[in-house]
Every structure is written in structure tokens, then in C-alpha cells.
Write a structure and sequence with these properties.
Shape of chain B: elongated
Number of strands of chain B: 0
Largest sheet of chain A: none
Helix content of chain B: over 70%
Order of helices and strands of chain A: HHHHHHHHHHHHH
Largest sheet of chain B: none
Oligomer: heterodimer
Helix content of chain A: over 70%
Structural class of chain A: mainly alpha
Largest interface: A-B, 59 and 44 residues
Strand content of chain B: under 5%
Number of helices of chain A: 13
Distance between the termini of chain A: 21 Å
Radius of gyration of chain A: 32 Å
Radius of gyration of chain B: 15 Å
Number of strands of chain A: 0
């Protein structure tokens, strides 16, 4: 029992370490996203300042901004190089996961189980994307009817950009030397930006889900826009007008271009998950045919219990085999029952089926599999008894 | 950041610890992250072209 306890403890620790590793990776991705977003904004701002300086005929200011833009673009290249490295790591991780899948999918039962799980998860992903697509579509329609909503969204985006910029600034400040600036950011500027975000969000939420629809949309069922979706949307990277934009001087947010980009992102994911789902469902169909083979029939009849435990919770063995004696007895009972059933069944079943069954049972791999399983269980029972004896003798001392 | 990221590598042992459902979740999570990253890097390339 101690052995299993230690094993479980180790298993939980390893799993926790893996989760932390993955969380760290996700954090790294998020940071890259933020860095790129901020860098893009800084380039856009510098371009706007340069354009203003050109119009005001201030050559020195133009030169300063040109140098600034050059530096920012160099920084962007640096961030993108990191992005490429992350991409390599991701590719590598995907290859390993794929390799692992290939290995465990050698077991047809497990493969069917995985395909089924994948189909469910891909469907959920698609469902989530469809819901967000519908909300985005509704938002665009509502914005056409009520242009003031555009201003609320822009207000949220700007407030969010401000918060992100301030947080970035905080990272570079010294706790002692820059205490005054830190206090200003923490106690004044961030709360102000958060308040601006909230005011705009509250107004937007009130406006998007109520009010008159245009005549063309009277009969249409519109998807309700959720608070979570609005928050997610405002955190996306929004474009600001480029040098050729008519509102260039204001450096306004280009909502149309930004929302087109977001819609494109959804479409890309939708396409990917659709293809993945079709692939898995196709696999499932062909799997149904192969599952009628002799191998599966024999496995189902002879080792239904052992096989299920091994196949479906293979990686959880450390947890599931906590009581070897009970498990062994139960397994023996079930095995005896299965054998009895097989004997009875063989009497009544047609000749072809029983012939196939007997033939398959002669396969070495089936016999080896059963023998291995029995040996493992016996070994565990032996170990358990030994542990009990040791514990008893310790207690009697 | 680079050091933090470069420290991360999935091992066979990591994968052995996962249940089939967790493996599927991981596969989908990685696919999702890859798509986000591609889009992110692509955006920048697009910006440069303008």
C-alpha cells in the first residue's frame, strides 16, 4: 500500500510540474502578444507624430521621429525572432504529442476512445467560435444602427491600451528610485483608465442588447452579446489609421479594419476545426469497420475488464491499482465468469464464430497479454503481502 | 523572456502522465496557440508591407 501511496504522490507531483510548465509557456505566449501589440501601437504613434511634424514644417522633430521609428522596428524584429523561436518549440511539442498519439493509438480500443474525445472537443471549439462569430456579427449590425456604440468600443480599446502601456512602464521602474512615478501609475493613472473602461463598457452593454432594430432586421433572431465577449474583443490588437487614413491626425482606431481582422481570425479557426472534425469523424467511421475483426472480439470476450482498465486508463494505473488483492479476486471472478460464458456461448453460437474465436485465442500476443497481466497482478499481491508482514512485524516489536 | 520560454520542452515522461482526455486537450491547446501565433506574426508582416 505504501508503494502505491508513494507512486500516487510522485504522479501528482509530476503532473503539477507539467501543468506549471504549460502555464509558463502560455504566459510567455501572452507576453509576446502584448509586446507585439504595444510595439505596433508605438510605431503607429511615432508615425503620427512624424506626419504632424512634417505638416508643421519641423525638420528636427521629423528626424527624431524617424530615428524613433527605426529603433521601434528593430525592436519589432527582435520580438518576432522570439516569436519564431516559440513557434519552433510549439512545432516540436506538437510533433511529440503526435508521436505519443501514434504510439498509444496502436491499441484500437484506445484509438476509438481518443477519436471520440477529439470529435467532442473539436465540436465544442467550433461551437464556441460560432457563438463568438454570431456576437461579432450582431455587434457590427448594431453599430451601424447606433454609431455611438463605436465610440464606446473605441473608448474601451483606448483605456485597455493605456492600462497595458502603464503596466509595461511599471516593469521597467525601480521600486525605490521611481517610487513617486509608481505611485502615480498605481493610484491615479491605472484606476482612471479602469474607470474609463468600465463607463464605456456599461454604456455599450446597455446599448447593444436593447433598442430598435432596423426594418430589414425586424424578424431576425440576434445573438445576445455577452460581457465576456466584449472584454475579449477590447483586448484584441486594434489597428489605428495609417498615414493615408483620412483621420490620420487624430490617430483614431480603424474599427472596420480591426473587426475584419478579428473576423478573419475566427474564419481561419473555424476552417481548421471543421477540417479536424471531419478527419476524426472519418477515422471513426473506418474504425467501426475494423473493430469487427477477430482481435477485438476475442479481447472483448476474454479480457473485457483488464482490457478496459489498461486501454482507457493506462496512464492512471498508479491510481487505479490501489487494492491489488481485491482487484485480483474481482478480476479472477470476472475472468472465470467470462470463461464460463464463453463455454456456454460456444455451445450455442454458430460454428464459424466459435472457430474464429478459438483461432484467435491461439495467437501468442493474446496469450502473452493475459499472462503478463496475471503476472503483474500476482506480483502486486506478493508485494502487498510482504509489506503487510513487514508492517505487522514492526508493530509487534 | 527568451530564457523562460526556452526552458520549456515537453518530454515523453510529461506525456505519459496525461490521461487520453488530457492529451486531447493538450493537442487542441497547442493547435490553438499555434494558430494565434501564426496570426500574430503574420499581422506584423502585413503591417510592414503597408
Amino acid at each position: 500500500m505504501e508503494l502505491n501511496k508513494d507512486s500516487n504522490k510522485q504522479y501528482m507531483e509530476d503532473k503539477k510540474a507539467f501543468e506549471l510548465k504549460l502555464a509558463k509557456f502560455e504566459k510567455g505566449m501572452e507576453k509576446l502578444k502584448e509586446d507585439l501589440k504595444l510595439n505596433r501601437r508605438q510605431i503607429e504613434d511615432a508615425e503620427i507624430r512624424k506626419k504632424r511634424a512634417e505638416e508643421d514644417k519641423q525638420p528636427q522633430a521629423v528626424k527624431t521621429e524617424e530615428e524613433n521609428i527605426k529603433k521601434l522596428k528593430a525592436k519589432q524584429k527582435e520580438i518576432k525572432t522570439k516569436g519564431k523561436k516559440i513557434e519552433d518549440i510549439l512545432n516540436n511539442a506538437q510533433d511529440k504529442v503526435q508521436e505519443h498519439f501514434k504510439e498509444i493509438e496502436k491499441d484500437p480500443e484506445l484509438k476509438a476512445h481518443i477519436d471520440k474525445a477529439m470529435a467532442v472537443k473539436y465540436s465544442r471549439q467550433l461551437n464556441k467560435i460560432h457563438k463568438e462569430q454570431a456576437q461579432l456579427e450582431t455587434l457590427r449590425k448594431v453599430m451601424e444602427e447606433k454609431p455611438e456604440i463605436e465610440n464606446n468600443l473605441k473608448g474601451m480599446v483606448r483605456a485597455n491600451e493605456k492600462i497595458e502601456g502603464l503596466k509595461k512602464e511599471l516593469e521597467g521602474l525601480d521600486e525605490i528610485k521611481d517610487k513617486a512615478r509608481i505611485n502615480e501609475i498605481m493610484l491615479k493613472e491605472i484606476p482612471e483608465a479602469e474607470s474609463k473602461y468600465k463607463i464605456n463598457k456599461d454604456m455599450m452593454m446597455k446599448r447593444v442588447n436593447v433598442g430598435e432594430k432596423s426594418d430589414a432586421d425586424k424578424d431576425e433572431e440576434r445573438t445576445e452579446i455577452t460581457s465576456e465577449f466584449i472584454d475579449k474583443l477590447a483586448k484584441e490588437g486594434f489597428y489605428h489609421y495609417k498615414a493615408d487614413g483620412k483621420d490620420f491626425k487624430k490617430g483614431d482606431i480603424n474599427l472596420n479594419k480591426s473587426l475584419n481582422k478579428i473576423a478573419k481570425g475566427y474564419a481561419k479557426k473555424e476552417d481548421f476545426y471543421n477540417r479536424s472534425l471531419q478527419k476524426v469523424q472519418g477515422k471513426e467511421e473506418s474504425e467501426k469497420e475494423t473493430k469487427t475483426g477477430i482481435f477485438n472480439k476475442v479481447k472483448n470476450k476474454l479480457n473485457s475488464n483488464v482490457e478496459n482498465e489498461t486501454a482507457l486508463v493506462k496512464v492512471d494505473e498508479k491510481i487505479s491499482w490501489r487494492h491489488p488483492i481485491k482487484k485480483f479476486k474481482a478480476w479472477m471472478n470476472r475472468r472465470n465468469n467470462v470463461e464460463k460464458e464463453n463455454e456456454e456461448e460456444s455451445k450455442v453460437s454458430n460454428k464459424n464464430t466459435s472457430e474464429k474465436f478459438r483461432t484467435a485465442y491461439k495467437y501468442d500476443m493474446i496469450q502473452d497479454y493475459v499472462k503478463d497481466r496475471e503476472d503483474n497482478i500476482k506480483e502486486e499481491v506478493k508485494q502487498e503481502r510482504k509489506n503487510n508482514q513487514e508492517r505487522d512485524s514492526d508493530e509487534s516489536r | 523572456m527568451e530564457k523562460d520560454i526556452m526552458d520549456i520542452e515537453l518530454t515523453k515522461e510529461d506525456l505519459n502522465e496525461l490521461t487520453p482526455e488530457e492529451l486531447v486537450d493538450l493537442k487542441i491547446k497547442l493547435e490553438d496557440m499555434k494558430m494565434d501565433l501564426e496570426e500574430l506574426l503574420q499581422d506584423d508582416e502585413d503591417d510592414e508591407e503597408v
